[in-house]
Amino acid sequence: MKVDEIQPWWFLVEPLEGKSISHYLGRFRRANELSPTQLGKISSLGAITSRWEKFRFNPPPNQEQLEALAKVVAIDVDRLAQMLPPKGVGMKLSPIRLCAVCYVENPCHRMEWQFKQTDKCSKHKLRLLSECPNCKARFQIPALWIDGWCSRCFLSFAEMVKSQKAV
Ligand SMILES: [Zn+2]
Ligand SMILES: [Zn+2]
């Protein structure tokens, strides 16, 4: 067997229901100590995975790209596709939004928060936060969410719950 035929074994990361691809790829990279560039190399997708981490889906991900990534992260293409926006749904690239109540229940960034049409958490009927209520810093892209706190003042997402207003 030639060396390049040996499939490396990666630490696998189980996707959470409703989780966005950005948050998922960040977790996968950290579990495997990969930079965005390295993930691009391994999957042969180049800069595409970094674009997805920033919710840049223009042009939309195609089947071939999803299969290439699915091979690396070892989850079904279908499961991967569920972390992408449905066809025809526009994305809001910034600000990154958060329902802190959702995050406490299930620590991930939910894809639907970045849909253009979304203006609230449909589950909790709360306005989404688009900045830290304490220091007003914008949230980082979810791929960089590690500890679930504001990257500037370290206010935890859990503490932000009391700043969320009902719709
Ligand atoms: Zn919520
Ligand atoms: Zn802050």
Biggest pleated sheet = 2 strands, antiparallel
Sheet-strand content, in percent, reads under 5%
Kindly identify the CATH topology of the largest domain. 434 Repressor (Amino-terminal Domain)
Within CATH, the superfamily of the largest domain carries the name lambda repressor-like DNA-binding domains
What ligands does this structure carry? zinc ion
Order of helices and strands: HHHHHHEE
Radius of gyration: 17 Å
Secondary structure tally: strands: 2
Mean pLDDT: 93
Overall domain count: 2
* Net shape: globular
**Strands of the biggest beta sheet: in what spatial order?**
1-2
Structural class: mainly alpha
Q: Do you know the CATH architecture of the largest domain?
A: Orthogonal Bundle
Q: Which CATH class of the largest domain? A: Mainly Alpha
In short:
With 167 residues, this protein is mostly helical. It has six helices and two strands, in the order ααααααββ. The protein folds into two domains: 71 residues, 434 Repressor (Amino-terminal Domain) (Orthogonal Bundle); 64 residues, no CATH class.
Question: What keyword list fits this structure?
Answer:
6 helices, binds zinc ion, globular, 167 residues, mainly alpha, 2% strand, 434 Repressor (Amino-terminal Domain), 2 domains, two-stranded antiparallel sheet
